[in-house]
Write the structure tokens for this entry.
Amino acid sequence: MKKIFFVTCAICAFILASCCGGKTSNEKQPASIAKADVDSVGYMMGYSFGMQLKEGNFGPLDYNDIMKGMRDASKGVEVDVMEFRRIVNTFLDNRRKAIAEEMVAKSEKYLEEVRQIEGVESTMNGLLYKILDPGTGPQPTALDTVEVNYEGTNLDGKVFDSSYERGTTTTFPVQGVIKGWTEGIQLIGEGGEIMLYIPASMAYGEYGAGADIRPNEALTFKVELVKVKPFIPKENK
């Protein structure tokens, strides 16, 4: 359902962007409409369509083909919507499967290299970690809530999430995150810092999460445990 909804939205954006045409002029616009406004709207519609392509994780596409489709749509050339959906959905399925297969080998190679780093240890579940600072405060349990600073990178070294960049800490229940985090954050005390090298099975698995976290991709996190907020049973509140 989600995939078909996305394709439907993409069709709408495609048609709307096409209506703007390839020219930056006032041609066929009311005389009171400024050229600058026509240009701005055309750009923003193109930007909107580009963002949908990015969020849909289509990967690199040929802009000549995109422009040809836009021109055909503006000329009124009809496309079978059901066939459109089939082509796009099949492509996305095949792309996800191909990336997933590539990521298995790439992740295994990366984690094997990490094992060779001095100070890196492994848990029974396969989580790799390196304690940078054990901390001097209490260690959290699975029932507690923690306040942290962190930065996450994928296998390409791209930072996909960072509380440091946002300039604010993040608070969450220890059991409310991916398995690698749940297990890893309990290995240090308040004030401590740890590197987590998380296999896909303890992260986002075979589906990944958006364009930056691919299927079967191992992830790396640097985590600073700022504060532990102990669990308080309801009867004690």
User: Anything to note?
Assistant: The chain is about 40% helix and 20% strand. The helical segments are 2-19, 35-55, 63-75, 81-115, 163-166, 179-184. The chain has two domains: 2-79, 109-236. The first strand starts at residue 121 and ends at 122.
